[in-house]
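[Automated response] Your request has been received and processed.

Submitted sequence:
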Amino acid sequence: MKIYLKDVINFFNAYEDLSRQQMNIKLAWSLHKVKDTLTSDLEFYKENAKEILNKYAKKDEQGYTKYTEDGKSVMLEDAMAFQQGLNELQMMEREITPEQISIDLLPNEITPSLLEALSKVFILK
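Generated structure:
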């Protein structure tokens, strides 16, 4: 099954939410297996996103990245090109073998965004 790198990112966000909850051992194990499988894809994304950021970041006279006054954001030379580069990276396809889990194993109350993220990496039956 093909997924996009953005689906990998969404899975890890969903995993963060779910990892703090008590759950059925089957669901916990399935989440763990998918996390292990997708970790290399997440690292690939992080490395490439960092390269894209570095490419479009404003630099000072010494070549260091410039930050906004509050120090929380990188100043960009070309924000549109940066966003386009990230979008292209997020749309890269990856091939995975999805885990099959029973939908009954999922929490009774779940957000639509969490369900969507899980449905990209699991076959819900």
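Summary generated for your ticket: The chain has a mean pLDDT of 93. The two ends are 16 Å apart (CA to CA).
If you did not submit this request, please reply to this message.
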